[in-house]
Amino acid sequence: MKLIVCVKQVPDTGDIKINPETNTIIRESMPSIVNPFDKNALEAAVRLKEAYGGTVTVLSMGPKKASEALKECISLGADHGVLVTDKAFAGADTFSTSYVLAEVIRTLGDFDLILCGKQAIDGDTAQVGPEIAEHLGIPQVTYAAKLEYADGTFIVNKEHDEGYEVVEMKLPGLCTVVKSINEPRMPTIRTKMAANRAVIQVFTAADLTLDPSKLGLIGSPTRVKRAFSPPKKESGVKLDGLESRAATEKLVGFLVGAELI
Question: Which residue intervals define the domain Electron transfer flavoprotein alpha/beta-subunit N-terminal in the entry (predicted)?
């Protein structure tokens, strides 16, 4: 079974900085992590490999430092890492990103299943996975909470607010997964050392047959009118050093003053 997992390196901070001219996140100076939902997708792929054999390739589009995220994925069970990086891709929205990733997947050759996290924690759009499937013209199931494989077909439990929908999907296909599908494993010292020696395959715009009008900020149909970091909430009031009766009276006083009671 040939499995491809799309992962994204996302900012690991609550202090997001926005470029006021492009309305995009300034990523260069921020600490980064592998998108948590993508780790669930990776774990699902590794478990399928362990059960049925095959290979797991992790694919990411981003700056050169995203190779660190790919090596982390290799330490968690992936076999190969592929990085798509080029200044021509900077500022890409979900359409442009999915277009480039789909073209890379075509270049890599045949596959059985593409797995993605349900969404990235920086954009929260949940669009890239489904859009990759549309570009490739393959079936897709989103919000997968359980995957079962038999005779070239996946039975997928698709999570809803009020339960699950059971969907049958033939291969090749794509699934986006939710957090409840599994608990991602931790790397070991041995797998970390092996991953550090791994060679990441790199694609640039010149290595692919791409339509320049669909690349980067200029090729993105999404236009962000304004982006900003929300104001930090003020901390609450602590009633320290008071007896229970005095603390209760103080609390009631606050609630009366706020016209809550």
Answer: 22-212
CA distance from start to end of the chain: 63
CA proximity to 116, closest of 41, 49, 168? 41
Residues 6+ away with beta carbon under 8 Å from 166: 155, 156, 157, 158
Residue 93 CA to residue 89 CA, distance in Å, equals: 9
Q: What rounded mean pLDDT belongs to the chain? A: 91
Contact between 62 and 11 (Cβ < 8 Å): no
Q: What is the mean pLDDT of residues 147-155?
A: 92
Q: How far apart are CA 261 and CA 252, in angstroms?
A: 8
Q: What pTM, to 2 d.p., does this model score?
A: 0.82
Q: Among positive and negative, which fits the CA dihedral 50, 107, 71, 92? A: negative
The 10s digit of each residue's pLDDT in 115-147 is 999 999 988 899 999 999 999 999 999 999 999
Domains of the chain from N-terminus onward: 2-214 (3.40.50.620)
254 and 237 Cβ atoms separated by less than 8 Å: yes
Judge if the upstream peptide bond of residue 172 is cis by omega within 30 degrees of 0: yes
* Alpha-carbon distance values, 223 to 91, 99, 220, 235 (Å): 11, 17, 8, 35
